[in-house]
Amino acid sequence: MTDAHCHLQNLENFDISDLKYVICAGFDIESSKKAIEIAQKYPSVYATVGIHPETNDELGIMNNELRKLVKKNKVIAIGECGLDSDDPKELELLKLHVDLARECNLPLVIHNRNQDQKILEILGDYHKVMLHCFASDMGFMKECVSRGWYISFGGILTFKKSDYLREVAKAVPDDKLLIETDSPYLSPEPNRGMKNSPINVKIIAQLLAYLRNTSIDQIEEITDKNCQRLFNL
Ligand SMILES: [Zn+2]
After folding, report:
1. 221 contact partners, CB below 8 Å, separation of at least 6
2. Cβ atoms within 10 Å of 114's Cβ, excluding its own
3. CA of residue 80 to ligand 1 center, whole Å
4. Which one, of 27, 42, 34, 35, lies nearest residue 84 by Cα?
5. Gap from CA of 121 to ligand 1 centroid (Å)
6. Residue 195 clears pLDDT 90, i.e. is over it
7. Gap from CA of 5 to ligand 1 centroid (Å)
8. Cα 25 to ligand 1 centre (Å)
9. What whole-number percentage of the chain has pLDDT above 70?
10. Which pLDDT value is given to residue 56?
């Protein structure tokens, strides 16, 4: 089983012994450094380096730092990065990540809060992309898949109000599906509000198996394989 997106840096302790791959995502320079440290310590953990849209740091400094970090051992993607709004500073920061991903030929891990059109515009034809914690509609999912992008589901899929998202999850092609926890955030039902942990990815896998009328073993097999392919593990 794979947790394709979590923040082990923000967990006091974690049990990842049951997981094949764990992608530990940075969200600023400090957390990206910590992600690399953890990844270098645990064979199943890999790191991403990037800066979340909510930052006050100066672009040039972040760019230089990221360019140093991306060369470290076990860094397999750029992110998480993305958009919470259409603030020009957020757009600039995302563009910086897209340029870096293109240069290094690494996948992008994208955070998207209601900015579907801007994400499509800025990422363009770049095809190595994971949309983390997907929460958009069917039309956007289909557009993303047609560009070769991967769709990753987390705790939001289990929420009561997410009927539309469960319909989307049924329609994602097998070879574009990923599962994640985003722990310690976004605990799935019935643990909502509690601290999340990577092992809860099994709850997501179980729900997907039910929705897609298949077995949890099958979900495990395809999501492990997809993670391996996208991140070149
Ligand atoms: Zn995250």
Report:
1. none
2. 12
3. 7
4. 27
5. 22
6. no
7. 6
8. 6
9. 100
10. 78
| Tokens matching residue 192 | 């909502």
**Structure token pair of residue 83:** 């958009």
Q: How far is the CA of 181 from the centre of ligand 1 (A)?
A: 9
Structure tokens at 232: 């070149």
Distance 175 CA to ligand 1 centre (A): 22
Closest CA to 185 of 194, 176, 177: 194
Across the strands, what pairs with 24?
Answer: 6, 47
CA dist., res. 36 & res. 115, Å (int) = 29
Give the pLDDT score at 227: 98
What domains are there in the chain, each with its CATH number? Answer: 2-231 (3.20.20.140)
Contact 151, 134 (CB under 8 A): yes
Tokens encoding 213: 């009328």
Q: Is the previous residue joined to 184 through a cis bond, with omega within 30 degrees of 0?
A: yes
Which residues are CB-neighbours of 40 under 8 A, at least 6 positions away? Answer: 73, 74
Q: Are strands 108-112 and 75-83 parallel, antiparallel or unpaired?
A: parallel
d(CA 201, CA 197): 8
